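Summary of Year 1 activities. Much of the first year was spent building the evaluation harness for sequence design. The harness presents a backbone, in tokenized form, and records the residue chosen at every position. We chose the following record to illustrate the format because it has been used consistently in internal testing since the harness was completed.
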């Protein structure tokens, strides 16, 4: 293995990807596997560069002195570029032999100039003002037009032009102007497509190896504890439930029903209905295709459940064997996680997850080693994200509603149960209707598919998110119509914030040039994307999280205030979103550099206005 040439913390000159410009950078780390240096530019942007794209400052200045001390004949040849290269100066004629000698000198000069070019480019070291242009930002950091997008579209066909390889017939002034435009274009467009090559994960989350090891046991234990608590007559925190016999937790028939449910949803996923869209570019520049048919799967599932009810199938069987279903789902998610990790060991380097490539077995097993594991065109992570668990959540809620009616001999469900089912049904239908938006979430773009997402999608979502409905079966709560109306208003406010904020963000991502978005202001970034500073995204940095938390509160309020157990979801959700916001903050600061700092100054509150 070749030894590294530059040490961590060393200040060197790094070439900007896709251009001929060199800037002063600081080496932050080195990947022994990919043989890439991670360097940090002055504006905070971090990129991975090859050793051939990095030069020491001393050799850089030495080449500069060599190029400046060229012979008088070279300088005169260089100055002659302002005239047509085949035409002699005024009052002078050249013979054919002189012309050939002149061409030979010219070729030699071009070669020497290309060698001395890195030294000359040290003169372009960005200052305070031109750093903004280097970062893809105009001097005015807030924009409400689409000039950047239009400029990118105009200049896109020129990306294949080769610089300094052919002689130009333009004047020196025109040539200089063309080079400046090309340089700005390359900086603007190249950063948009070039991603950091996958490297070892150095910053471990979730408490590192020890934290992830404990969470592999803590998450299933939390689910089983909550379900056992709901079964008790007094579900207070101090009244710890008795542990059931191990043989009572497993039933082969229940596991078979769970497998049938999982593969039924997989069948709906494979149906050739719904549009096919492309996801965000991967580190290799490739875009994966996804079929958007989650809402159709929900309709087919509803039809299947309706047929079962018509045939007098006892759906409250789910309530009677709820713990066994949870154990079956947990066992399946563990087996799926083992399979995902084993297959990820053979995955190419560019297909590994940015956050799950630490080299530590437990950490990578938990966070997910492979980013987008697929069996043919079947995307395992994308399928589990919305199908078995999210649609299963609605089916479980319906089963709890029917169980309440049967156990308490009711002709219709209680008002509390109706509110919980209605609010959560709206949330699931909204997610499936706007399925395409999930392709831009951190779960899809950053996190690998490992135990964390497998257990979360297949166990945590259906069995913990349905906790309020499960609680109401054994602990009925009577609420008045005015209270129900007030709770409904709270849920509607949360949903309006959640949906309008997400719609605003998704519309801006799809087409920033849309005339309907002309009133929105944004801060341009070096990646070519903009950070919204008006609308909901100028109110707080994560307005969708704020709406989510308000809705979570509305789902718990119908359960009354006798016990804190039904409020576990909203407490957990606040902790989850605060942690996710911290992860977003860290990634965005690395990705956007100074632009993110300006955005944080413009929008100081993260989730809760005037509080946090």
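For this record, the design step produced the sequence shown next.
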């Amino acid at each position: 293995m070749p030894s590294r040439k530059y040490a961590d913390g060393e200040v060197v000159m790094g070439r900007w990807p896709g251009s001929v410009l060199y800037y002063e950078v600081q080496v932050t780390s080195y990947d022994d596997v990919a043989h890439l240096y991670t360097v940090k530019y002055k504006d905070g942007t971090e990129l991975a560069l090859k050793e051939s794209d990095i030069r020491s400052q001393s050799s850089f200045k030495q080449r500069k002195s060599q190029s400046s001390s060229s012979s008088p004949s070279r300088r005169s040849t260089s100055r002659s570029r302002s005239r047509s290269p085949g035409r002699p100066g005024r009052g002078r004629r050249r013979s054919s032999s002189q012309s050939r000698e002149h061409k030979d000198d010219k070729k030699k000069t071009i070669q020497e100039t290309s060698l001395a070019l890195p030294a000359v480019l040290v003169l372009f070291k960005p200052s305070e003002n031109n750093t903004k242009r280097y970062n893809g930002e105009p001097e005015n950091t807030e924009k409400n037009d689409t000039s950047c997008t239009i400029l990118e579209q105009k200049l896109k066909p020129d990306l294949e032009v080769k610089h300094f390889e052919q002689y130009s017939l333009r004047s020196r002034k025109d040539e200089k102007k063309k080079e400046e435009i090309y340089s700005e274009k390359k900086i603007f467009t190249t950063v948009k497509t070039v991603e950091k090559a996958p490297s070892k994960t150095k910053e471990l989350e979730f408490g590192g190896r020890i934290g992830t090891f404990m969470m592999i046991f803590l998450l299933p234990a939390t689910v089983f504890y909550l379900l056992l608590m709901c079964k008790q007559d007094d579900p207070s925190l101090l009244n710890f439930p008795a542990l059931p016999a191990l043989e009572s937790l497993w039933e082969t028939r229940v596991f078979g029903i769970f497998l049938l449910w999982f593969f039924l949803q997989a069948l709906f996923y494979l149906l050739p209905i719904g549009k096919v869209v492309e996801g965000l570019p991967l580190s290799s520049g490739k875009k994966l295709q996804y079929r958007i048919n989650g809402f159709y799967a929900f309709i087919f599932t509803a039809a299947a459940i309706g047929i079962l009810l018509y045939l007098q199938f006892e759906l409250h069987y789910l309530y009677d064997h709820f713990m066994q279903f949870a154990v079956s789902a947990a066992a399946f998610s563990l087996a799926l996680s083992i399979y995902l990790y084993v297959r990820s060991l053979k995955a190419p380097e560019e297909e590994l997850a940015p956050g799950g490539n630490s080299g530590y077995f437990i950490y990578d097993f938990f966070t997910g080693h492979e980013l987008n594991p697929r069996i043919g065109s079947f995307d395992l992570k994308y399928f589990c994200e919305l199908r078995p668990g999210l649609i299963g959540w609605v089916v479980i809620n319906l089963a709890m509603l029917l169980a309440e009616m049967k156990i308490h001999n009711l002709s219709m469900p209680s008002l509390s149960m109706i509110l919980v089912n209605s609010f959560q049904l709206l949330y699931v239908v909204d997610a499936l209707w706007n399925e395409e938006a999930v392709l831009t979430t951190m779960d899809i773009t950053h996190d690998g598919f490992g135990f964390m997402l497998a257990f979360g999608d297949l166990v945590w979502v259906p069995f913990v998110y349905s906790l309020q409905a499960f609680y109401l079966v054994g602990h009925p709560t009577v609420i008045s119509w005015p209270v129900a109306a007030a709770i409904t208003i709270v849920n509607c406010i949360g949903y309006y914030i959640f949906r309008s904020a997400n719609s605003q963000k998704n519309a801006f991502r799809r087409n920033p040039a849309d005339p309907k978005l002309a009133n929105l202001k944004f801060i341009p970034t070096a990646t070519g994307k903009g950070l919204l500073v008006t609308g909901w995204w100028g109110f707080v940095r994560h307005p969708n999280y704020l709406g989510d938390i308000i809705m979570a509160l509305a789902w718990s309020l119908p359960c009354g205030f006798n016990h804190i157990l039904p409020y576990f979801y909203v407490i957990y959700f606040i902790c989850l979103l605060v942690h996710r916001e911290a992860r977003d903050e860290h990634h965005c600061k690395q990705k956007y550099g100074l632009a993110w700092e300006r955005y944080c100054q413009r929008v100081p509150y993260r989730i809760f206005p005037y509080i946090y």
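The longest strand covers residues 22-31. Quantitative recovery figures across the full test set are reported in Table 2.
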